[in-house]
Design a protein that fits this description.
By secondary structure, the protein is α/β, with parallel strands linked by helices. About 55% of the residues lie in helices and about 15% in strands. Bound molecules: nicotinamide-adenine-dinucleotide.
């Protein structure tokens, strides 16, 4: 049982709640905060402590974990009003949201001299957050990454140190580009097969036994799309945000990448059309409307 570290966990949503719960199960003292009283109550039901504010959660915590929608929200919570100064000198921020790398570098600069930052976004979705088997892609100084590792291990099965601060967030955006492009391919494949007269479930079954399989065909198509549940727990607006982050990164590096640009445009248009709050697997509805 791990008991030495006190952790502030800010953002107890679809991902944050199960991740924070796994830290409690691992023996950490965890002070959680979320703007939603319901989310906070769920965490208390799981054995966590409810803080009155993000700043209160940070006071006396050696590790501060943020699991919020994007880097702007993270910055508002930590830097506006200088809330981060409530944390003890030398405490470690683990920025586990999917944020843009330049936002993370700017955050690290803003808190430098008082706090250390490791970006440690995750992949695997709600199911793997619950199971404690997420993949973590981290960015930060070697010593900070080593300090973060035991805490990350309580939430994940695979941890990668990708480079300095921002590298984890760059890797996460790159991953979600591949994931989002995979959803487009899988959904268009099913719609194409269906138009030809093939059974949708058969298309998925054959893809999953063949070279066309991807994450969407394996863990999304039957489970959330053809079943009609659309309940992956990952919002469409968050996916669109991540792919746009990758597209912006590409532009900032002077690259011209048409596949990425078109993938980002399609997801942004889907978010505008359906609203960002719907489950990202509703992308099926968006593409279905387009084929006519
Ligand atoms: P979510 O919307 O379910 O959770 C965000 C939580 O933050 C909400 O409970 C909200 O009330 C809270 N919040 C918002 N503003 C706040 C503030 N100022 N102070 C305190 N709490 C605040 O989102 P999620 O699906 O848990 O995703 C969180 C992050 O993880 C995002 O960056 C997302 O892109 C990323 N992510 C999500 C998944 C997934 O499958 N859902 C997978 C990997 C990564």
């Amino acid at each position: 049982m791990q008991t030495a570290t006190r952790i502030a966990f800010i953002g107890l949503g679809q991902m944050g709640l199960p991740m924070a719960t796994n830290l409690v199960k691992a023996g950490y003292e965890v002070a959680g905060f979320d703007l939603s009283p319901e989310a906070l109550q769920k965490f208390v039901n799981e054995g966590g402590q409810a803080a009155k504010s993000a700043a209160d959660a940070m006071a006396g915590s050696d590790v501060i974990i943020t699991m919020l929608s994007n880097g702007k929200v993270v910055r508002n919570v930590l830097v506006e009003g200088k809330a981060y100064l409530r944390a003890p000198n030398g405490a470690l921020i683990l920025e586990m949201s999917s944020s843009a790398p330049e936002e993370t570098r700017s955050l690290a600069e803003a808190v430098s001299g008082h706090l250390r930052v490791v970006d440690a976004p995750v992949s695997g979705g709600v199911k793997r957050a619950v199971d404690g088997t997420l993949a973590v892609m981290a960015g930060g100084a070697d010593a900070d990454f080593l300090a973060a590792r035991p805490v990350l291990e309580a939430m994940s099965a695979k941890i990668f140190h990708c480079g300095p601060v921002g590298a984890g967030h760059a890797m996460k955006a790159i991953n979600n580009y591949v994931s989002g492009a995979g959803v487009i391919a899988a959904v268009e494949a099913v719609l194409l097969g269906n138009a030809f007269g093939l059974d949708e479930a058969k298309v998925v079954e054959v893809l999953n036994a063949s070279s066309g399989k991807n994450n969407a065909t394996e863990v999304k198509m039957n489970q959330f799309i053809l079943s009609g549940t659309f309940g992956s727990g990952f919002a469409l607006g968050l996916m669109a945000k991540d792919i746009r982050t990758a597209a912006n990164l590409s532009v900032s590096l002077g690259l011209s990448q048409q596949g990425l640009t078109q993938t980002a445009d399609l997801w942004d248009d889907a978010a505008r059309t359906l609203g960002g709050a719907v489950d990202h697997t509703r992308f099926y509805d968006y593409l279905k409307r387009q084929v006519g």
